[in-house]
Structure formats: C-alpha cells, structure tokens
Automatic annotation (TrEMBL), chain B:
Keywords of the record: FAD, Flavoprotein, Oxidoreductase
Protein name: GMC family oxidoreductase
Domain of life, source organism: Bacteria
SUPFAM superfamilies named in the record: FAD/NAD(P)-binding domain
Annotated ranges, domain Glucose-methanol-choline oxidoreductase N-terminal: 82-298
The organism of origin for this protein: Alcanivorax quisquiliarum
Pfam families: GMC_oxred_C (PF05199), GMC_oxred_N (PF00732), NAD_binding_8 (PF13450)
Residues making up the signal peptide according to the UniProt record: none
Domain Glucose-methanol-choline oxidoreductase C-terminal: 376-515
Family assignment from sequence similarity: Belongs to the GMC oxidoreductase family.
InterPro entries on file: FAD/NAD-bd_sf (IPR036188), GMC_OxRdtase_N (IPR000172), GMC_OxRtase_C (IPR007867)
Length: 215, 535
C-alpha cells in the first residue's frame, strides 16, 4: 500500500500549491494567453505532434494513482527526480517519500475548476519545452541539466512562465518536505511539546475586578 | 460580590454538530440577544468580554471551527487546513501575495506570533490632532495599551527568548549602528517550541482562545462556531440583527439557518471579512470607502546562510526587531525562520542541486522579515450575489512600494552580511543569492517590477487594515470616531478595518485597544442603544 499524508491536512497544501495556476485562471489577459499558448501547441501540426511523442508515454503508471493523468504522472515523476536529486546526500531518498502519490492525493482534493486549470498548466509546462529553448522534446525527455535549466529559465521568464514553474516546484517541494520523515535529515525537530513533557497551562486567569472574586 | 467561574481549559462553544444533534433547534434557529458580535478574533473577543462583563447579553458568531488547543499537532500543514482561512491559501487576485488569516474560535490571535507593538506616538498624536480622533492621543490611549498589556502578560522578550537567528540580527545591527530591541509578545512562560504559527499546544500564547473568550463566557457570553454570517439586518436606518448559515466545518454543507435579533451589532471579522459583510448587506456607503484603502503591510523574508549551524528554527519564533527605520521610513524588521514546508511556499525555490544544497544548510539559516509601510491602495470586494458571489482581494505593489520592499530586503541583507553571513538569498521568485555585500546592488537590479510587480518579489501580508476606516467625515470614512458606522445606528465595527491610515506597527495590540474603546463607547451610549436604557 502506498503511504500518503492524511487527507484533511493535505487540502491546505493542495490549495497553496495550486495557487499560481488560479491566478492565471482569474486574470482574463493571462487566461487568454494560457489558452492561446496551449492551442498553438495543440494545433502546431504534424511536426509538433511527432516531436512531442515520448517513450515515457509507454511507461506504466502505478495503479494507486487515482487523480493524475498518465502524462501528468510522468511529468511530476520526472520533475521530482530533477528537483530533488538527493542521491549522495543525507536527505531521504525519493523511494521513501511518495512524492507523486502525495501530489496525486492533493490534486484529488482540489475543486474541479482548479483541478482543470492545474491540468492545463502542467500540460503546457511539459509540451512547451518542444519549442521553448528549442529543445525539440517535451520536459519529460530532457536530461537532468537541461531540465534544471528549463526550470531556471522559466523562473526568470514572463509572468506565465514564473507562475507555471512555481506551480510544479511547489507541488513537488511541498509533497516532499511536509512529510515528517524528511525532517530529521535537516535536523528540524518537528513537534516537541509532548516529547518535552510540557505542562499544559490552560486558560489565563481572569483580570481581577473590584467586587468580584475568581472561582 | 459576584463569583466568576473561568473554566480551567477550553471555552463553551455551540458548534454545527451541536445544532445538528439538537432536534429543538431544527433547520431554522431564531435567537434574541442584546449584542451580537460577528467574529471572535482580537477585536470581537475583546468587545464580547467588555460587554458581557458589563452585564450585557452577548452572542458571538464565528465562521471558523472550534479547535481547542489540545488538538494542535505542531504540524503547520495540519493547522493550516483546520484553522487558517481557505486552508492557508488566501491570496490576492494574482495569487502571488499570500494573506494568512485565522478562521477559528479566536481568529488570527490563535495563529499569530504574539508580536505586540505600539504605533509610534507621533502617529497617534497626528491622528488625534489632524484626523480629530482624540481617543488616540498618546496621553489618553497609553492607559488602555497598558491595561490590555497587563491582561495578556505582554512583555519584552527576555534573554532566553532570543534565539540564534535573532542573535545574528543583533550582531549585524550593532555593527551597522542600527537600533534594535527585543520584541514584545503576549505569552506567559514561553516554552520556546518555535511552533507559534501552528497554534500553541500548551496554551502559553495569550490568544483570545485562552483569554477574552473564556473570560467573556464566564460572564455569560454565548459562542457559536461554524456560523457564517451572510448579512446584517437593517430596519429604519438601524441594525437589528444578522442572518447566518451554520455549516458543517468538514463538508461545508448547510446544517441550519440562523436569525439573530439584536439591539446592537458589532462586526469584527477583520480587515478582509468585515467590508465583505457590509457590502453583502448593502450597508449605506456615503463615502464609497467600504473595502477600499486597504493597507497590507507587505513583507519579504530574507534568508542568510552562516558557516556555523544556528538551528534558527528553534526557540521563540520572533526574537528581536530593528526599530531604526520605523518612524523615519516605515520599515519594520522581525527575526524569524519558517519551518520547511512553509519555507517552500514563502521562500527559496531553486531547482535541483541548488535546492538540495540550500536545504542541507537549513540549520545554518537565519531569517529576517522586512516589512514596509505601503500606500493603502488595496481593495477587497464582494463580486456577485449573496449566495454565489466571491471575495476579490486586489493588491499588487506599485513601483514605489516595490522599490521600498527591495530596499528593505537590501537593508536586511546588509545586516546579515555585517553579522558574517556567507550567502544571502533574495526574496524573489527567480532564485537569486548574493555571496558578498559588494554584489548586492547588482543582484537587486535583476529584480524588476515587471507587470504589476507580479511573481517578482515573494510578498506576504499578515496584517491588512484600514478597509472601513474611522473618521469624522461621513463622506471620507466608514465609521465615526466611536466605531459606529455612519448612518447606521447600532452597527459598530471593532477590528483592523477601522484603522484610519496605514500603520508602521503590527496592529494586534492597537486593534485590541480600539475594540476596548468601542465597547466602552457602546456602554457609554447605552441609553440610546439598548431597550432597557441602562448605562
């Protein structure tokens, strides 16, 4: 069974991660730009369709993934590898933190209209690599260096690019760092009150008034 | 002599679950009271306490859930989902400026860092003289600040409450010749867990949850959680009550409709929610200022790396402030370092190996939040009808505000370098860092305002205010100096929305002082407000 963080506390994380795409959906100019870009990519003809093919599309998706599409799963799986190259460090390996499963869980908690926008944003981020930077390949097929460079370029690009790269990074980083198993490696203490046996002080005493007595 | 019983812990609160279980309440609930208070945060709790203590019948309605301290987990993600408005994702309309706000019994006092700051006397004197608000004259208001301070154990941080992050700020200030001081906080016997933003599990932070609300309840005030007030009821130019919907806090499903008939209505939902309620209620707005003039007190977090481990996330979250620029330029600086998950939302987001290196050095980090006084140009508005409409928060930095925030970030970076920082991370969406003070200006030049300042600097706001400003002129302000809405008898405001201008100080203490004054104004005008006519 795949371990994910609990349902109720993931809702807030999902909302925070998805916020950048909500901004694009709210602003007419940006929404049109987003839709326009997606449309251009979609109808750019057979050449684009040929270029956007990827061997990754043939890879299986775990049965436990319930909310992400296959393409979204592969994108986020690749993004996690690129954004969190923990091998050789003391940080917890991705095999022990179900990053994409956590994102799948978070995405499932989003309202339908935001979920749809997140899907559009992820699709655009993945496919735009074919043209942006003249990679000629989708993001999922970029090698590690090119993928990091893609993130960095988008982080200093236009408003849409900054929002979309933030969207992907937030989902991945929040899904990783909110898991308590990742904290020990950076020596973050997490919850301490019970461990320290802190006394519970309860309500503060009532300010004393003349002619009154506290019971 | 009367004997007042304050419960040892917790507050007696009616919840949606209580309403659902009680067949006598049904799908429609009608309640009569003398005073209904909307909101249970800093302002609402204070008003409820003062009026209940004076013998008035008080009912407090809170849209958030009742979340007793014992349920806090010290996991910020959990707390955000349970007690933060919109699960910690209340953003402006472009979703790049975060406005964290509490939505629970106790409101934002439950999730704040406990920072208590008085505005400069020069500002208060100006309000008294130039805005004809004599209640703010320093000589007059000082005793109210002192009274509120005593009630909540407000004190300057002692030596053990100043952590390693704060010590770096102190060292930098000493070298730069900047004035600094320990932060004043409303906490008793702080246990130094560093989890203030996730709620205080052992009830050391003096939030309304453990002070004014249990005290108000001890004097007979009744509290309802999960109760979303949809509008204020008016009759003949007078507020006569409110309508609300009781919702299941888990599902949002409607449990019951509530109508409260009251002789006085006090709205204290905070600077965001109060104007929205007034707009939904179609309150007469001669000034056109409801929801306008919003000051957001924007801030950016500058992070610095040091050679030695600091464990800057341990200890009291906020240790010291730099007060050098508060009066002259409106800058405030507070030492603080976020926990990892929140850092991912607010802070550095480099990609790949750079991110890993950054997090490997998490224990070497120190943080300084640079707040700037903004121009008060923001708006909050309700768009659409009562049932299906939505809130729109509009604020993006102007070029001048953006430049100010950048300058604040530069000052914070200089303080850190003066204290020996090896690297300073700029608070920009584009990952930028500086390894020497000599690179600072060049790096800052790479952060441009761009399109409305969107997705450039990482900006947050904890302290919106001024959206229903107080004043004497009904064509320029929403409420009169007593806190009563112009042209609506019996409708009072008691929260940060009342602040007449942007203030260069954390507003918590000032809001509680204003709320105490508003409550006393209500009592002083009792003969014209209450049916029993008693003062």
């Amino acid at each position: 069974m795949t371990r994910t963080t609990n349902t109720s506390s993931s809702a807030g994380a999902a909302a925070q991660a998805a916020a950048p795409i909500v901004s694009l959906g709210r602003r007419r100019f940006l929404r049109h730009a987003l839709l326009g870009s997606a449309a251009v990519l979609a109808v750019a003809g057979g050449g684009f369709a040929w270029l956007r093919r990827s061997p990754v599309d043939q890879l299986p998706v775990p049965e436990t993934i319930r909310h992400l599409s296959d393409a979204e799963y592969h994108l986020l799986h690749r993004a996690a590898q690129v954004l969190l190259p923990v091998a050789g460090s003391a940080l917890v390996p991705l095999s022990q933190v179900p990053v994409v499963a956590n994102i799948d869980h978070m995405v499932g908690l989003l309202p339908a209209h935001i979920r749809k926008q997140v899907g559009m944003g992820l699709t655009l981020f993945d496919n735009a690599a074919v043209i942006a930077g003249w990679h000629g390949r989708r993001f999922v097929d970029l090698d590690d260096a090119a993928a990091v460079d893609y993130f960095d370029r988008w982080a200093s690009g236009n408003s849409i690019q900054r929002a979309l790269s933030t969207l992907v990074k937030r989902f991945v980083y929040i899904a990783y760092w909110r898991d308590p198993v990742t904290w020990e490696a950076v020596e973050f203490d997490g919850p301490v009150s019970e461990r320290w046996g802190l006394a519970y002080l309860g309500n503060a005493p009532l300010p004393q008034e003349q002619g009154e007595e506290r019971a | 002599m009367r004997i007042i019983n304050v419960p040892r812990e917790g507050v007696p609160v009616f919840t949606a679950e209580d309403v659902r279980r009680d067949p006598a309440m049904g799908r429609r609930v009608n309640v009569k009271t003398e005073v209904v208070v909307v909101g249970s945060g800093a302002g609402g709790a204070m008003v409820a306490y003062e009026l209940a203590k004076a013998g008035r019948q008080v009912l407090v309605l809170e849209s958030g859930r009742y979340y007793p301290s014992a349920r806090f987990t010290e996991h910020l993600g959990d707390t955000m989902t349970q007690v933060y408005r919109e699960q910690g994702s209340q953003f402006n309309s472009t979703a790049d400026v975060l406005f964290p706000e509490g939505q629970c019994i106790g409101g934002s006092t439950v999730i704040g860092a406990g920072v208590m700051q008085r505005p400069p006397d020069s500002l208060l004197q100006r309000w008294a003289n130039e805005l004809s608000l004599p209640q703010f004259a320093p000589a007059t208001v000082a005793s109210v600040f002192a009274e509120v301070g005593r009630e909540q154990f407000v004190h300057l941080n002692e030596a053990h409450e100043i952590n390693a992050t704060a010590h770096k700020v102190i060292k930098g200030c000493e070298k730069m010749g900047f004035s600094w001081k320990p932060v004043a906080r409303n906490v008793r016997q702080c246990a130094l867990t560093g989890h203030c933003l996730a709620g205080c599990l052992s009830d050391r932070k003096m939030s309304s949850l453990v002070t004014y609300l249990p005290w108000a309840a001890a004097y007979g005030a009744r509290l309802f959680a999960d109760c979303h007030v949809s509008r204020v009821l008016l009759r003949g130019g007078r507020a006569v009550g409110v309508e609300a919907v009781v919702r299941d806090p888990q599902t949002g499903a409607e449990v019951s409709r509530m109508r409260v008939d009251a002789e006085v209505v006090v709205v204290a939902g905070g600077a965001m929610q109060t104007p929205l309620l007034l707009q939904r209620s179609q309150i007469p707005d001669s000034s056109g200022q409801i929801g306008r003039n919003m000051a957001v007190q924007p801030f950016v977090q500058v992070l610095a790396q040091y050679e030695e481990p600091l464990y800057g996330f341990r200890g009291a979250l906020v240790g010291v402030e730099i007060d050098e620029f508060m009066e002259s330029d409106g800058y405030m600086f507070f030492s603080a370092l976020a926990e990892p998950e929140q850092l991912m939302v607010q802070g550095e987001q480099a990609a790949g190996a750079e991110h890993i290196e950054f997090m490997k050095r998490y224990r070497h980090l120190a943080g300084l939040n640079a707040f700037a006084l903004d121009e008060g140009r923001g708006t909050v508005s309700w768009e659409g009808d009562l049932e299906t409409g939505r809130k729109v928060i509009s604020w993006n930095p102007s070029q001048a505000e953006f430049d100010k925030l950048k300058h604040g970030a530069a000052l914070a970076a200089r303080v850190f370098f003066a204290a020996g920082a090896k690297r300073v991370h700029m608070p920009s969406f584009r990952p930028l860092h500086v390894d020497s003070v000599f690179e600072l200006d060049h790096t800052l030049d790479q952060i441009s305002h761009g399109l409305k300042g969107m997705y450039s600097l990482r900006i947050n706001s904890f302290s919106a205010h001024g959206t229903c400003r107080m004043g004497t002129d009904r064509f320029q302000s929403v409420a009169n100096p007593q806190g009563e809405v112009h042209d609506v008898k019996g409708l009072f405001l008691a929260d940060a929305s009342l602040l007449p201008e942007p203030i260069p100080a954390a507003p918590h203490w000032t809001v509680q002082v204003m709320a105490k004054q508003v409550a006393r104004n209500i009592l002083a005008s009792a003969s014209g407000l209450f049916l029993d006519g008693n003062a």
